[in-house]
């Protein structure tokens, strides 16, 4: 597994957190403001010392997502169309699409 910095109120080693800990909640996301990949937006709000900054619409190549299963990183562009990890095939929670606006402009 690749080494990435994870942040938040994590409950396991696959990036599930106190807020989202279902079987498909294996994605951690980075905001444009800081390096850790966070378990979720609520983890950033509770644990970071600054407000979250979303990725600008013109920065879709930024690797802002990590699969908690294999630690493969994905670009914003690749993640927003993915149903799962292109590296290990771990399925992602389809409900996360409802929160894309919290991370990506």
Automatic annotation (TrEMBL):
Endpoints of the signal sequence: none
A biological-process GO annotation: protein import into mitochondrial intermembrane space
SUPFAM superfamilies: CHY zinc finger-like (SSF161219)
Pfam family for this entry, one: zf-CHY
Domain CHY-type: 10-90
One Gene Ontology term of the molecular function aspect: zinc ion binding
The keyword Zinc is assigned to this record: yes
Keywords: Metal-binding, Zinc, Zinc-finger
PANTHER family: HELPER OF TIM PROTEIN 13 (PTHR28082:SF1), ZINC FINGER PROTEIN (PTHR28082)
Protein name: Uncharacterized protein, contains Zn-finger domain of CHY type
């Amino acid at each position: 597994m690749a080494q990435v910095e994870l942040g938040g109120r994590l409950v396991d080693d696959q990036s599930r957190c106190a807020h989202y800990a279902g079987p498909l909640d294996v994605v951690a996301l980075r905001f444009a403001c800081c390096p850790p990949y966070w378990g979720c937006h609520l983890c950033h709000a509770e644990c970071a010392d600054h407000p979250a900054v979303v990725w600008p619409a013109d920065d879709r190549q930024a690797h802002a997502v990590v699969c908690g299963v294999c630690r493969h990183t994905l670009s914003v562009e690749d993640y927003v169309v993915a149903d799962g990890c292109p590296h290990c095939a771990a399925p992602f929670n389809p409900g996360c699409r409802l929160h894309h606006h919290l991370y990506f402009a």
